[in-house]
Specification:
By secondary structure, the protein is an all-alpha fold. 44% of the residues lie in helices and 0% in strands. The two termini are 28 Å apart.
Length: 114
């Protein structure tokens, strides 16, 4: 399993395939292949962000659990929500934090990176 490609390598493969798809002569085929690859790239981003979020909360993302029949499951996240799930909330004001910043853009509070 150690020889398996990483998610980053798969993303690079999809991006290279997207560039190659531009050379497809048939317009319909080119558009279909481009859409296919763009959707695949979005799904990779959603998976990566969701995986990071679960790990940050101490949950093993690869362990499958049975749902409790007495507890109602939350609605699934929209694609937009899933893409930003990697962001955390400011401890001071509750605003969404950008993972690239060490401070909250809303209130200016410093936030530790984990």
């Amino acid at each position: 399993m150690a020889d398996s490609p990483t998610l980053d390598e798969f993303m690079r493969h999809l991006q290279a395939s997207l560039e190659e798809a531009e050379s497809i002569d048939d317009k319909t085929e080119r558009e279909e292949r481009t859409l296919q690859l763009e959707i695949s790239i979005q799904e990779c981003l959603i998976f990566a962000n969701r995986y990071k979020e679960l790990v940050a909360h101490g949950i093993d993302p690869l362990v499958l659990v049975s749902s409790d029949p007495d507890v109602e499951a939350p609605p699934p996240a929209s694609k937009v929500q899933a893409l930003v799930l990697g962001n955390t909330m400011c401890n001071t004001c509750g605003a969404s934090l950008d993972s690239d910043l060490d401070f909250c853009p809303a209130c200016g509070a410093m936030n530790k990176k984990e």
